[in-house]
Amino acid sequence: MDSANGVTADELARRLSARPRVRLARLPTPLHPARRFSAEVGAEVWLKRDDLTGVALGGNKIRKLEFLLGEAREAGADCLITMGAAQSNHARTVAAGAAMSGLPCHLVLGGDRPDRPTGNVLLSTLLGAELHFTGLTGWDDLARVAEDLRATLAADGHRPYVIPVGGSTPYGALGFAAAYLELLEQAAAEGIEPGVIVHATASGGTQSGLHAAHRLLFPGGDGGPAVCGVVASGTAGELMPEVAALAGGVADLLGGPHDIGSPYGIDGFLGEGYGVSTPGGEAALRLLLRTEGVLTDPVYTAKALHAVVERGAELAGGRPLVFWHTGGTPAVFSDEHSLVSW
């Protein structure tokens, strides 16, 4: 698990434990083989089940939120603000974490208020969050609305803590540096040596944490599973510099060198854009569901799964491939992303 030139896994775990954290998730999440799916795609695929993190129908965002809530608590925050698309898994997770922590929660959401609450909107409402539909779609526009809301709450005497889209800050990404260590321990227990982790990437928090841990443990990338982000927003050329900057921030927090090498992302599976399903993604979703009984969301995780179907054997290079299931299944039950019609 260690490289002669990198930090040891024990030392990295010690550095992570020194950071404030609010434990919410049920960890570790399962790691198990997907044998029938593997036979279909021609690669040995293992599933890392962050759809089973145990909070409000699961998802990977809770890993980041644990550290963000730790930072919020240290700052003395008395309410949370975050932003995202109407069916944002991150927003729903923040609503859950706020409820579990006894904090009011404000969600600044893209688009118009739907006719009825379904999917993540339904869950966020049940969790007690206050939803602010903006009629806007751009991340920068949502951030401006969130800042106005922060200023209003602060003027009323509150101490709001603002979490950006996806919880993707260096501090939030610490959750996935810890997750990389979790995976290494599980892989060793299973007697496997994965060659690559494949996951969907958009705001960069998941990938930056995994990449930072990989390169802190294995400088130069020699050893341990590599990290491959399947781009689900924009292009790899646009996103990977942002991931690199976040990963550098994670490394700074963990006492490592800021420049820890370039992250790897692949294009070709985005389709029409972020939050829009693709035929290939929907087919991959059905294949995993009908071979393993495991459901993904149709617009994000399914796009990375499509990459595994199309390029799994190439990416694995003859070694086991870990598909990091980032959750998001409530979107399947939304009116916006219906997969079935009579």
Automatic annotation (TrEMBL):
Entry cofactors: pyridoxal 5'-phosphate
Keyword flag Chloroplast: no
PANTHER family in the record: 1-AMINOCYCLOPROPANE-1-CARBOXYLATE DEAMINASE-RELATED
Signal peptide interval: none
UniProt modified residues of type N6-(pyridoxal phosphate)lysine: 61
Native source organism of the sequence: Actinoallomurus bryophytorum
Active site as annotated: 88 (nucleophile)
Molecular functions (GO terms): D-cysteine desulfhydrase activity
Family: Belongs to the ACC deaminase/D-cysteine desulfhydrase family.
Protein's UniProt name: D-cysteine desulfhydrase
GO BP annotation list: alpha-amino acid metabolic process
Record's keyword terms, sorted: Pyridoxal phosphate
Tryptophan synthase beta chain-like PALP domain: residues covered: 23-327
